[in-house]
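ok, trying the design again with the full structure, not the truncated one.
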């Protein structure tokens, strides 16, 4: 299994919603949703999107991913977003339906907007290093249009017809597009970047990352990880810290505890079993490590999230 695959194996998009937006005349709107990943698929026409200090134009066939739902403004080509009003109220009223942007003029763009919640703990390290607006996928995306074109046609069909399983299809589409956007971003990163994701392209470090994610319960040491990577102990430890920004075992502990928190939220295993799954020799050692990071014991953490599920 490759490094990006293991990195994403416990990252789940939740509560996916989608909207069809028809832009008419001179339209504009703003969106400010926290803890949300957004995707735009341009079915026809084109529009501008303003995220922070970046303005991007997208045209028919393009797909954009906005990580961690930063506030942004979208508007018609040749217009501006100075009078943009929040779109949240219209989206809440028209979930999975058509939202008309403006009332007068000709239709100049048709968009699909996908809104996804996610497991915050599992995806936190990834989102912390991603740009707000990922490079768009399109027929110009370096030969990748074969995959994107199929997905565009599939989503277009699903958005037009009321068929059983449509929400499940949209969920899968969002997951596939997130992977496409992420690997396009990782593959295009220059070697000089200080982004820790470049470790996924490193032929040595990637092996160690795969091993830690694939078997977090194994009694890993620096020596064992260096052996997996095919490097000397000192060279591996230094290279990992330089690229990832932390020592290998610190990275492993962080992943183990985030994974443990996920298991606790899922309410599916006993605390003793979770302790085993994430590589701790005893419940007390696991509890102490967990409390240092999350401020509460595994039991209290589970109870807190159990109340949220009941509420």
């Amino acid at each position: 299994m490759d490094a990006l695959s293991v990195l994403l194996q416990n990252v789940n998009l939740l509560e996916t919603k989608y909207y069809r937006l028809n832009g008419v005349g001179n339209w504009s709107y703003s969106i400010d949703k926290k803890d949300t990943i957004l995707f735009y698929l341009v079915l026809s026409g084109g529009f501008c999107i303003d995220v922070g200090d970046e303005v991007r134009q997208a045209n028919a066939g393009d797909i954009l991913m906005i990580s961690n739902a930063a506030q942004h403004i979208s508007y018609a080509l040749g217009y501006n977003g100075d009078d943009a009003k929040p779109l949240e109220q219209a989206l809440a009223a028209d979930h999975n339906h058509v939202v008309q942007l403006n009332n007068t003029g000709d239709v100049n763009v048709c968009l699909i907007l996908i809104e996804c919640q996610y497991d915050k703990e599992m995806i936190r390290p990834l989102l912390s290093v991603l740009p707000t607006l990922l490079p768009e996928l399109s027929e110009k995306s370096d030969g990748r249009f074969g995959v994107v074109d199929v997905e565009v046609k599939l989503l277009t069909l699903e958005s037009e017809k009321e068929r059983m399983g449509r929400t499940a299809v949209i969920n899968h589409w969002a997951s596939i597009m997130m992977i496409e956007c992420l690997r396009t971003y990782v593959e295009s990163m220059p070697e000089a970047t200080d982004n820790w994701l470049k470790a996924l392209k490193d032929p040595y470090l990637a092996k160690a990352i795969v091993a830690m994610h694939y078997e977090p319960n194994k009694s890993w040491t620096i020596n064992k990880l260096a052996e997996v990577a095919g490097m000397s102990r000192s060279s591996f430890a230094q290279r990992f810290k330089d690229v990832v920004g932390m020592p290998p075992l610190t990275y492993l502990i962080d992943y183990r505890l985030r994974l443990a928190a996920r298991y606790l939220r899922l309410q599916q295993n006993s605390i003793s079993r979770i302790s085993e799954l994430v590589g701790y020799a005893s419940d007390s050692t696991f509890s102490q490590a967990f409390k240092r990071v999350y401020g509460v014991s595994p039991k209290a953490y589970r109870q807190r999230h159990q109340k949220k599920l009941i509420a």
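Keeping the full-length input from now on. The chain has two domains: 3-187, 202-310.
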